[in-house]
Amino acid sequence: MRRYFFLTVECVRPESNPGSHFISDGIKELVRRADPEAILQDITLFSYRNIDWEVMLSQASGIFLCGNPRYEPSEKPFFWLTELLDHMKRAQLKGIKIGDLFLGTAVPLPVKSLQGTTEQLLSYARNRNTLKTLALFDLVITRDRLSQNICEELVEGCTLLPDSTFWAKDYYGIEPGEKRYNCVTLPSLNCTPWLLKELYKIAERLAKEKPTYFLCHSPDEYKLALAAIPNIKNLIIIYDPDALLRFYSNTDKLVSCRLHGSIPALSLGAHIVNIAMDSRAMAYAQFGFNSISYTDLKGKEIELKFDALAKKDHPSADPFVKLFTERIMI
């Protein structure tokens, strides 16, 4: 019986990001399809201890990083780029399979060209060192074209697949529900008063059709919305991933500034306008749709063209299952 460990967020709490749960839980759903008998366990990225690594190194068949932004225009070290990658290399030396699954890249908008941005990001030593380490991994999966471009510079066999959050609903066993209301999901990034006010105008437009909620994934944007919009109506916060998916299952139209709100809602039959806050929104294009830059909302009323994905057009899990079987389960 194989035992897999997933380096991800650890628990549900108001300040945590439910989108991070959707990434790792979607990955675990895909791994279950490849290896149904395996034991799947999480280890926190934020406060892991040496004893946790000793346990993993003695028990694990595979250890996987889950979907964080791996490349940014910065030399600032992140928590996963120091001793964490060294631990991963130690695991591989012990014969444990290692992977970076559905990694992304975070670059401020606009992204003018893929090649130019790739070259810009690889001018940073931090990104080059990360890329060299990933070249040693047994399995590397990206979720957007920019991340794939970067990885292709050095990582043999890296593969671009649709974002894992599409399968989070299956991990939780949640089906599409009645489409009873509309929703506007607030951003965590660039959550400025002008943007909140423009988003609230959109919520008021949608409210002419159905009850419409102004949704926050965390307390930070909740407090900002209260401060920016006097007499705000239908402002809610949902940070629990199971509760949030159930909410999205009953959403008809969603205008979302959260990529990992848009994709799970798309999988549950919602009609989506995805607002891009940075380059991570490029993952939405893997489903055949374009995003709108948040800067396009300033001072004008945009036409809302909603995207929807018929059941017959849902992406298949088979490419992941094949890769995982060939690279990890051998």
Give structural notes.
- With 330 residues, the protein is an alpha/beta fold.
- It folds into 2 domains: 3-161 and 316-327, Rossmann fold (3-Layer(aba) Sandwich); 170-313, Glycogen Phosphorylase B (Rossmann fold, 3-Layer(aba) Sandwich).
- The chain has helices at 18-34, 50-59, 83-93, 114-121, 125-134, 145-151, 168-172, 193-206, 219-228, 241-249, 259-267, 318-327; strands spanning 3-8, 39-44, 62-66, 69-71, 97-105, 139-142, 159-160, 181-185, 212-216, 235-237, 251-256, 271-276, 292-293.
- The strands form 2 sheets. Strands 1, 2, 3, 4, 5, 6 and 7 form a 7-stranded parallel beta sheet that branches.
Biggest β-sheet, characterized?
Answer: 7 strands, parallel
Question: What's the structural domain tally?
Answer: 2
Mean pLDDT: 94
Topology, number of strands: 13
The proportion of residues forming helix, as a percent range, comes to: 25-40%
Q: State the CATH class of the largest domain.
A: Alpha Beta
Strand content: 15-25%
As residue ranges, the low-confidence spans are none
Annotated CATH architecture of the largest domain: 3-Layer(aba) Sandwich
Distance between the termini: 13 Å
Shape summary? globular
Structural class: alpha/beta
- Listing every helix as H and every strand as E from the N terminus to the C terminus, the arrangement reads EHEHEEHEHHEHEHEHEHEHEHEEH
Q: From the alpha carbons, calculate the radius of gyration and give it in angstroms.
A: 20 Å
Give the CATH topology of the largest domain: Rossmann fold
Total helical segments: 12
